[in-house]
Amino acid sequence: METASSLPDDLDPESPRASLTEPPKGLSLAQLRAQLREAHARLHQVQVQLQARQEQLDAKEQALQALARESTAQARQHRCAEQVARLAQLGHWQWDAGSDTLAWSDETYQCFGYASGQIQPTLALFLDHVLERDRQRVSDLLQQVLRQADPQRPRSVEFGFRRADGAWRVGRLLGEARRDAEGHALSISGALQDITELRHTEQLFHAAFNASPMGTIVSRLGDGVFLDVNDRFAASFGWSAAQARGRSGLDLNLWVDTVVRDLWREQLRQHSMLPNFETQWRHRSGEVRQVSLSAQRIDVDSEPLVLTFVNDITAHKQAQARVDFLAHHDPLTGLPNRVLFRDRFELSAAWARQLGHKMALLNLDLDHFKTINDTLGHPAGDQVLQQVAQRLQQVAGSTSTISRQGGDEFLIALGSIQDEQRISHIAAQVIAAMTAPLHTGGQELEISLSMGIAVWPDDGEDFDTLLQCADTALYQAKAAGRDTWRFYTPAMNEQALEQLQLRTLLRRALEQRQFVLYYQPQIDLASGALVGVEALVRLQREDGAIMAPGQFIAAAEDSGLIVPLGEWVLREACAQAMRWQQQGLPALTVAVNLSAVQFRRGDLLHSVTQALTDAGLAPQRLELELTESILIDDAEQMIDQLRRLKALGVCLSIDDFGTGYSSLAYLKRLAVDKLKIDQSFVRDIAGDPDDAAIVRAIISMARSLKLQVIAEGVETADAATLLRMHQCHEAQGWHFARPMPAQDLPGWLEQYQGRRGA
């Protein structure tokens, strides 16, 4: 194709040779102009052709670029597909029906443990790798693919296989057939994936699912239908997995409150995870259980599911409620304990203050309850306490608060008291409620109680003060003979303070060795000889004043200090008797008084044995004086201890005989050696015929039982003469000598023997 540059110079308007002002020779100006127009037309035609050619070139270039881009994208897609197949362990395979050849991708080789191209795959080799148990199923799948008419439905099968290295794996095989126009299968191709790890994970999940200690549920979030439940759920709520699948919690009537169910589901939609949601579910039997739900929303194949762990916390809640109850109630009777009682009392007091009313605090203590525990056992004692609590509730009514403080002590708070006579009326009802016999262990028991009463706000405005006042009044009720009640008075507090000070004094006196022993001689009435002494304890105060035993023995018994005090008296009396022998005095019997508290709380046999051993005193030189009241408290146990003491060789005597129990049967069983006639009968024996008759009767009875008799409180010669006439064996009293310190006895004995000789 010619361009503008190929025109002859004479035709080119740009050529310097072309002159418009001077036309070529032989041509006219009109001819020249016609030639120029023809040249311009030809030039325009050439330009159009050039532009068309350029457009064709541009189109080819764009097509080449598009082809290059398409090739690049295909290469990239191919690489991505290879990477996905490698990461997913997804291999490709193809079997050609005509040539009976099998082709594997690199990933398929790797699945079976071969390097790419290491072996020539065949259908027989493939089936040989499949475990024998699954081989027929895989073969059947291939046959189904060959016969399958619908190419849109590829077939799949899971099977076990062994790699070339012997490792056992799990695979999934998918296949579809390519067919000709007549529908004949030309080839089968598909994918092979190693799903060993997936199945292992699923097995672990199912193992954890079934072994979970909590009920576990997989359900749909949309309609709540259960897809699966584990065995623990079945055991907890009575629905087997087969019965629960395909049904919702509403269908199984699990939810006690459906409003709570809707709230739970709404919160789960909002938060995806909802732990420790406490509610109530219903067992298949109808029993309501406390449960804690911990749920997690999960998406499987774009479907929202819920994995729920159900923890049956019924036992925990019951235990927690029990703990809460026991924190404020007595476990034996179910009554409020001191903590709850105090709270209720303070609330009642605040209410009474607003109304201008009064309150009363009743402090109750069962009389001789320890005897029930010791004789019948603690289970019987517990039954007694339970029955007492029931009776108190019946008497006090619903407007009062009753509490067991521990042991056999109860408190009753009476609120809104407008008339103090009502307090006495209720107190009388409480006392009367105990008159009916109690029954425990097939036995009928009589029981009574003592009661101290304090009034709010007269006796105290706070609980502790009022309780102290009621306790003081209770002590006075017991001192008044029990089975009664006493209102608190300020004078009681003074007495209680005196008792407290006295106990403090006794404790300090024990620590600082301020107790001393005085000894009163005991005389043989037939011969007039000194045969023994009675050891009498005294308290010598820091100011030198001497306190007689009547001033502190009761306090020592109440406080338990009588046990260490009694042990000291035993040791000191035995030691002193031995010191007198060493000084040349005749061998004397030393009499020591024993308290019932020493029998109950101390190891009396050990104390006596130790005192005799330490002093080196012969057991027959120790006489133990017992009060008749000892036999009232657990007589069988006392008798057993006394027999052990008797076997030790010591003498036993009954002190103050005639004023207490005075059971002749027990005298026989105790095998005592001596009776001491109480001074209340001896003092007026010379002037009172009744006293004289009683003394003669005691002496006659004792002689019949072959017992020695000693009379105390002999203050006159006439009394001594009468006792001698009635054949009383021994006597002691001011007529012979007053109690004296140990160091004074040798001097007195010398003077006494001198008077006898004169």
UniProtKB/TrEMBL annotation:
Ranges for domain GGDEF: 357-490
**Known SUPFAM superfamilies for this protein?**
EAL domain-like, Nucleotide cyclase, PYP-like sensor domain (PAS domain)
- Asked if the keyword Coiled coil belongs to this entry, the reply reads yes
Q: Which residues form a coiled coil?
A: 29-70
- Give the matching SMART domains: EAL, GGDEF, PAC, PAS
* PAC domain: residues covered: 155-207
Please, which domain of life does this record's source organism belong to?
A: Bacteria
Chain spans, region Disordered: 1-25
**What InterPro entries does UniProt report for this protein, alphabetically?**
Biofilm_reg_signaling, EAL_dom, EAL_sf, GGDEF_dom, Nucleotide_cyclase, PAC, PAS, PAS-assoc_C
| Cited PROSITE patterns | EAL, GGDEF, PAC
Pfam family name, one: EAL
NCBIfam families cross-referenced by the UniProt entry: GGDEF, sensory_box
The family database entries (PANTHER family) matched by this protein are listed as: BIOFILM ARCHITECTURE MAINTENANCE PROTEIN MBAA, DIGUANYLATE CYCLASE DGCP
Protein name, per record = EAL domain-containing protein
